[in-house]
Every structure is written in structure tokens, then in C-alpha cells.
Amino acid sequence: MKNSIHKNSFKLIILVSGRGSNMSSIIKNSMLLNWPIEILAVIADRDCNAINLAKKLSVPTVILDYKRFRNSKRFNIELFSVVASFNPDLVALAGFMRILNQEQLSCSKHIFLNIHPSILPKYKGLNTHKRVLTGNETFHGATVHSVTGDLDDGPIICQGVVPVLPEDNEALLAARVLDMELKIYPSAIAAILSKKIVFKSGVWVKSEKAIDLPAFYFSKIVFHPYFSKHEKEKIVEKLVF
Hints:
Rossmann fold; 23% strand
């Protein structure tokens, strides 16, 4: 998918494994807001709903069925080879359920991003909503970060914070977090591609040489409207960037 009026589009690949909610948000925001972003391909490790959605949005798709590979290393070698063949500016993991190999990441010239449903560094891994409820947390959220060879690790780009309410169960909390994910991930991608933020000395920092994008706003911390000014200030003190 390409916004045809832009001659010099930024090039993006999206890696998926599941339903495609974040993938769809990235693609639709790029289209509706007329960002100069070309989605080169959606790559999946299995046949999944995200692939079907990508096809409906006229985005090229590639399936690298993980079951065909002897082990994770062989899968990673093929995956990185396919990614390199497209030569993207950025690779976004959107519900991609594989850990990328550290050796391949180190050799790649491309930037890889991920979004995780928790306020990292807390609650890495699976079942974050259940663990947050069990931990009696008062807030939860999502984190966009650079990908490293470690699980849910890497320099943080931005975080979206939502409340944990007394009546919450896993489903209610998961839906609230997903709504936040759909807001912050496209914005983070646009911020990097437009050079609004740059990677410097191991962290993401604001740049003065940003390229203007239509209808675009980026913030390192995005709060659900539930929070008061005082509550926001208290939460910011607890966040780790």
C-alpha cells in the first residue's frame, strides 16, 4: 500500500502473528492521514487473520510458516533475509509472537519496533492483564520500544497509560489497553520515520530536524482521559525511560 501522491515515501514492513488490530491501525492511519508511508509488506509466521486483513487493504503479504523450519535460528535467518530484500526504513512487530535472534538483529541495519501491553519494564511476557489485576495495580498500559534479542526489552519510545478500575476483569482491561495501543503505535512509527525522534546514545530523543506530517502529534507519555492532573504527575514519577 502506498500513498501515491508522495514520491519519496518512508518504507515500512509489519510483522504479525494474530488478529491484526495494531497492523490495521498503522495502515489505516497512514492512509487516512495521508502520511508518506509505503507499507512494503505484511509478513506473518503463520496463516492468520492479520494476513486476510492486509490483503483486503491491498498490502502485499508474505507467510513464513514457522512449522516449516527446523528451529528458531533457521526461521530467523530466513525472516531477516526476506526483510532485507525489501530494504525497509523501519520494521514494526504488531502481535508478532516470535523472539528475534540477537545475532541477526546485531547484523541488521534496520530498526525494529514492538508494542507490549504493559508499562515496561514491569510485566514483561504473557498474561499482563491478569498479572496487573492480581498485583492490585492502579494503572496499566502499553509500551512502544526498540527490539533487542531479549524478551520485551529495548529502549522505550513512548507509553500509553490507562486506569485499572474496581470493576475491571481481564477482558475489560485488555480492551482499554488495546484502545491505547491503537493510538500510540502509529504515532510512534510516524515520529521515527519523520525524524521527530532519533536514537542517540542508547535512548530515543527529540530532534529539531523533523519532517512535518499531516495531522500528526507525538508525545512520549499518553494518558487516558480518566486521570486528573495530579494523578498524571504521580504516575510520571514512577515511569522509567
